[in-house]
Amino acid sequence: MIDKNSKSFKRKFDSAVVHGYSSCEGGYGAVSFPIYQTSTYKNPGLGSDIEFSYSRCSNPTRAEVQNTVALLEQGSAGFAFTSGLSAILACFSLLSAGDHVVISDDIYGGAYRMAEEIFKRFNLSFTRVDESNLSAVENAITEKTKMIYLESPTNPMMKVADIKAIAEISKKHGLLLTVDNTFLSPYFQKPLTLGADIVIHSGTKYLTGHNDTTAGFVIVDDEDLAKRLDLIVRTEGNGLSPFDSWLVLRGIQTLPLRMKKHEENALKVAKFLKTVPLVEEVYYVGLEDHPSFEISKKQSTGFGGMLSFTVKDVSKVPQILKGGDVIIFAEGLGGTATLITYPLTQTHASIPKEVRDEIGITDKLIRLSVGIEDAEDIINDLKNMLK
Length: 387
Ligand SMILES: Cc1ncc(COP(=O)(O)O)c(C=O)c1O
Fold this sequence. Notes:
CATH topology of the largest domain: Aspartate Aminotransferase, domain 2
Distance between the termini: 54 Å
Largest sheet: 7 strands, mixed
Helix content: 25-40%
Radius of gyration: 21 Å
Strand content: 5-15%
Shape: globular
Bound molecules: pyridoxal-5'-phosphate
Order of helices and strands: HHEHEHEHEHEHEEHHHEHEHEEHEH
Number of domains: 2
Structural class: alpha/beta
CATH architecture of the largest domain: 3-Layer(aba) Sandwich
């Protein structure tokens, strides 16, 4: 648990990302937090109560990054994992056989696969619901339900959940509410402050921000949950390495600058796409005609850099996916470079066709992670790709 009365909690967000949790206190006063590349630590003697004993369980560089992400999310404990999926694994590991989870119908394909192909074999059950429909969420709750799990905005259809309202439903039924906050990052949205119990991140994305490492985070604001997660990290053994922790610490320092630019560019790109004859539909939460524009404004301070669109003529998809000068065809999101992704064969390939069709993940759907390049270059690429 971290001290919420510490001076790091008093800093404004833009300062907190730069100075982290412990700033340059301790050691030699290094301004760049050191990489503690050690698997084990000298024990001063039998019975000593040492903070770090073995790096699978805890490591100072990992502690710094997880405390920093926890403070950005306004939680009191954070856990850093080798990927976003390891973070989701830890979160589902809080559950027991027989438990039931209400889960977004539109989620990252890997999270769907984890639920359907791994945890179902351990007798957990899942009901998929449209999280933007509050009564659908409440109606899906049974006496076995222990968790509501959602992404907001969702990947790739950009649906938005009213997190506060769902947190109230969750509390009424004594459930844990988990929110995957990958798309907006704590810069734009802090689910714990809206009543969520657990926040998860693919730290691979905006938190690190440069498409150079994989990482995942779980953040909570409850001592009991923190203890249970600590046991899971020690035991499942997928805590983030010291070097990758340092990469996240380095990347996260520019999170506010990047998020502002991602959003500025995404809005320009979304507005441009609306004018392209080949484009059928544009899904970007920051467009005023998005069905959840008002809810988003209420619970988030921005709309982020992710958008999806459909094209009228599927035969043009291979041409579009060749990318452009700055737009790269690749699986991923949240980095400085603009990436174009085809959910059907990439991020959401493991979801069965009938489920994909129901959500809208068809052969016409394309996802864009709008980078921080000059917006004109991104739009010029799109002009050529969408001819
Ligand atoms: C919303 C979301 N959550 C979780 C993940 C999984 O993260 P990772 O790829 O770091 O395992 C992804 C991956 O794309 C994602 O988009």
